[in-house]
Amino acid sequence: MLVEKEDLGLSLSLRSSSSENRHPLQMNLMAWNDLFASTERSSETIRPFLKGIDVNRKPSTADCEDEAGISSPNSTVSSVSGKRSEREPSGGDGMSDDEDGGETSRKKLRLSKEQSAVLEESFKEHTTLNPKQKLALSKQLNLRPRQVEVWFQNRRARTKLKQTEVDCELMKRCCESLKEENRRLQKEVQELRALKLSPHLYMHMTPPTTLTLCPSCERVAANVSDQAAPHRHHAPISISPWAQPAAPFIRALDVAPH
DNA sequence: CAAGAGTCCTACATTACATCA
DNA sequence: GCTGATGTAATGTAGGACTCT
């Protein structure tokens, strides 16, 4: 058939990454999936697997016996959390059903440093998990698969947030740079307009440097150093202010800033 | 083949808890 | 010890892709 499950996961994330601005980290998935591409997983093999462990459902009592019970020997469940359970025996906000062993409110365990480190390492290699990887990690870390999944979800979110912040900073700087450029160009235009209005002024000037106009962006290189290092569009066109007649020259320079 | 239901996965928003200053 | 800020585990929801009937 059929798209293999891990490929499905990959295609999903990459597809959505194109529609929105996903982090490029996800591209690493290719390599990771290649690692696992050789493993089994027809739909027939997936189904029973997923049926057995539905990572999306809330941890049932069975799960807790099976996994949560061993889920946090390494984890540091806060000593306060138990007290909270005492504080809010009713479970407060609607999470009253199948919680762990009668404990109603959700407990928030802190992952140990070792667990976090392993997850981080794994995340470096692949930002999404296929079910097999998820299960392997969860076994390795003594966590529920759902916890591994959640960790990756949150990690992706953090990555994206950070990337957004970086992008934002970059855009700010870019904006500032463009503003500065705009100011410079406005000033340049003003000067040129002033020149145009009083041609007699430049007639008394010693033949200065040759003004250089980039034919691509029509920018004037204002000084010698600019000419020495003309911006890199095309071969600059040199315009001598003494060329005849003066008026066309000025007209040629009368360009709006872009 | 098309349509609809069911399943799975994801991003995203939000909540709730843990920790620290 | 209390409190607000911060980090993050966990939850809820919506939407897309796929399979099956």
Automatic annotation (TrEMBL):
GO function term, MF aspect, one: DNA-binding transcription factor activity, RNA polymerase II-specific
DNA-binding segment(s): 104-163
Record's compositionally biased regions (Low complexity): 71-81
Places the protein is found: Nucleus
Residue ranges, annotated region (Disordered): 56-113
Coiled-coil segments on the chain, per record: 161-198
GO CC field: nucleus
Protein name as it appears in the record: Homeobox-leucine zipper protein HAT4
Lineage: Eukaryota, Viridiplantae, Streptophyta, Embryophyta, Tracheophyta
